[in-house]
Design brief:
The protein is of the alpha/beta class. The chain contains 8 helices and 5 strands, in the order βαβααβααβααβα.
């Protein structure tokens, strides 16, 4: 990994769909194109293309003291440490994200971060204070998912739990329903426009936060 330019705002995007040409893949493409157009960088981690190993092994678990950090996990933590935001893009399968994404949470986001840290909301060193933005797709309608309680359940066990447990700044989730083969082009375009507008708003917020932090740092320096 090359040394990053610390002045550039970076998005760490984790993509969890085995089909890169799927609608989820189009979400990724739209996200990258929009952020880059606004002068910000996106690091895309395509878990299936990478052959990411989702299996957490006993020696990696931070039960008593520090767990071992495997080389692939160390690489992800290095990327995350230089990022300003964590972005997740994935489909809903059987009411949950794909297992490979849960494995990423277990092995990377949970690296040397125990259940006690989660309980105390200590803040993961690579993620503390950073926002979480998720895009999920489903073949069924949002109304049906609400009826079955899936939306609320996923919000509590994946969005809020990660956001609060890892000490992140906030969590936002864009849900795109009725994503099926042969869906109308107009509907697809409308949903990608939602993605584009979300990225534009997110980039503006990150830039504003960066300027605010620098101003606060300068003001603190003048008082010291």
């Amino acid at each position: 990994m090359n040394s990053p330019d610390s002045t550039t705002i970076r998005h760490h995007l984790v993509f969890a769909n085995p089909n890169r040409t799927s609608f989820d893949g189009q979400i990724v493409d739209t996200y990258v194109e929009t952020a880059q157009r606004l002068g910000q960088d996106v690091v895309v981690r395509d878990l299936y293309a990478m052959g990411f190993d989702p299996v957490l092994r006993n020696e990696e678990r931070p039960i008593e003291g520090d767990g071992q950090v495997a080389p692939d996990v160390a690489t992800e933590l290095e990327y995350l440490g230089t990022a300003d935001i964590l972005v997740l893009v994935y489909p809903i399968w059987f009411a949950l994200p794909p297992a490979i994404l849960k494995g990423y949470v277990d092995r990377v986001l949970g690296s040397n971060y125990s259940f006690r840290d989660v309980q105390q909301q200590s803040g993961h060193p690579a993620l503390k204070g950073k926002p979480l933005l998720s895009f999920s797709t489903s073949g069924t309608s949002l109304a049906w998912l609400h009826q079955k309680g899936q939306v609320g359940s996923l919000r509590e066990i994946f969005d809020a739990y990660l956001w609060q447990g890892l000490g992140m700044q906030q969590a936002e989730h864009i849900r795109i329903d009725s994503v099926v083969p042969g869906m109308k082009a107009e509907y697809a375009a409308e949903q990608l426009e939602r993605v584009r507008s979300t990225v534009e708003r997110t980039c503006a917020k990150l830039l504003s936060d960066r300027h605010s932090a620098r101003t606060a740092s300068v003001m603190q320096g003048t008082r010291d």
